[in-house]
Structures are given as structure tokens and as C-alpha cells.
Amino acid sequence: MKYRQLGKYGIRLSSIGIGSWLTYGMSINDKTALSCIKTAIENGIIFFDTADIYNKGEAELSLGRIFFDELKITREDVVIASKCFWPMSQNPNDQGLSRKHVFESVHKSLKRLRTDYIDLYQCHRHDPNTPMEEICRSFNDLILQGKLLYWGVSEWSAENIDEAAAVCEKYNLHRPVSNQPQYNIIRSQIETNGVMTACEKYGMGEVVWSPLAQGLLSGKYSGGKIPGDSRAANDKVNHFIKDSISNSELLAQVDKFKELANSINATPAQLALAWCLRKDNITCAITSASKPEQVIENCGAADIDFSPALEQQVREIFG
After folding, report:
1. Half-sphere exposure at residue 193, Cβ-oriented, CA atoms within 13 angstroms
2. Domain range annotation of the chain
3. Could you tell me the fold of the domain covering 3-318?
4. Would the pTM of this model clear 0.85, i.e. be above it?
């Protein structure tokens, strides 16, 4: 495993992380989750990402049980990230990024995760209904209280990031240190919409989600076939990938990508992850895993040297 600093900040993350969206506390039982997380730690993964909305708190509960009841890990040995924004109940204040919701969400996440502090807490989306000063001061106060070490954002625009940085500069507040966007070979908009440039300007690290495009870039759906144990076969979690696996042109591109990966003795998943990590400001690629074998395979991406020639070959495939 290789480790990278989170942007310009001192904390280091494993270049491969483990996420819990649509998996732990939901489609993956605790026994399988335990096996995957144990394998991840044994292979050097230290960054684990979750959010309160993931199965309405069940993902955080699952991680807390596995970390501290089952594996009995030392708290300092892992970097835990969580997020808030989405409605968690019918309570009109149980949503968004108001001071009330952020404070209450953090305390609930701390309880579910069974920890005294969260390493990285992120705004799961931007909230246009809450003034940016209120958002920034809320996270700054929680850092001063020792409940959070760092704060960041997810799926914010370049303009949102610019505004937050300006507010923090004006009032001498702790700035956001991270951005969590969707980023993969098929969806690389942050390279062209100003988000990656804004993050580089302020020294923010990118911790990207869906680096395998919901598993599509693993090559498992070649020819439109759907393995019985795959995400696409599970109606509870397959709504994000349905359109992709019915796109014959995209599947043909992935087949060519699979051939390219085989030519360098890598798997398609490893090559797709290495493609994300070719950028220095991509601190971590957050992966999902439903089997320990997938965790081990994904860790192999950290050792791939992504040359300019290899990047050109990928671009020729996907355009």
C-alpha cells in the first residue's frame, strides 16, 4: 500500500480506501463486512469512508461494531470519514447544513461509530439554503471542540469551494481540506469544470468515489451479462448502474479496456483505479468490496506505474 497526504495537509491516507455506500449495513451482512475490513487493514488500508445517510445510519453502526467490538482496533490506526446533509427523518431540521443539523448529525455519528472524534467530516452536498458563513463556522467550532479533526466537502462546485475558502480566509476559520467527487474514466468532469483546479488552488485533496463506475470498469458485465452475485443483480442497489449495463457501446469500450489491462498483467479494476491515482492531487480512490478477494485485488492498483503512453491508450479507447 502507498500513502498520500491529503492535499497540502499533514494527515496521510491510504491511496486505496474502503467505502460503505450500498454495502455495509445494507446489501452486505456483518460477517462478510468483517472479513472485508479485516482484509483491508491487513493489506495496509487505513482510510474508511461512510455517511449518516448510508442505510439511515446502519453503515456507521456496522463500522463501529466491526472496528471496536470485533477487530478491537486501536483508534489511532484508522482514518474515519463521515458526512451529513441528506434528510434522516421527517423532522424539518434534520437535513441540510444548518448549524443545528451539523451539530446534531456529528454527535449522532460519533455515537454510532463508537468514537470520540471523527478524522474527516464532509458536507455531503452544498446547501443553498444556509449561508456559507454559518456552514464554515459550524465546522470550525466542532474542530475547536475536538470532535472533528478536519472538514471537507462532497460534490461541491468550484464556485462553492471558492466561496467557502473566501469566508474562512475572512474570518480566520479552518478551511475545508478535502473534496469527495465522483471520478472515473467514464465520468471525469472535475478535470474540466473547474473543481479540480479549485481544489489544487486551496491545497485540498480529492478522495474520489465510484472509481470503478459502480463496478462497470471491473469488466464483470462484459457482453451485458449480469453475474448473480453482482451489484447489478441486486434490485436494492442496482438503480445507479442499470443504464450503463444496457449501453452496448460502453460495454464494448470496457471490453477493449479489459484487453489493455490484461496486456500489462493487471485486472481492469486495478487499471481503472490506477488511472484515478495517476493524478497527484487524487489522495485516495474509495472502493466498495463485497468479498475479501476484491479488497486484495484493488490494493494491487497502488503498484501500477501509470505512464503517459498507458494514459494515451486509455484515452483512445474511451475518447
Report:
1. 15
2. 3-318
3. TIM Barrel (3.20.20)
4. yes
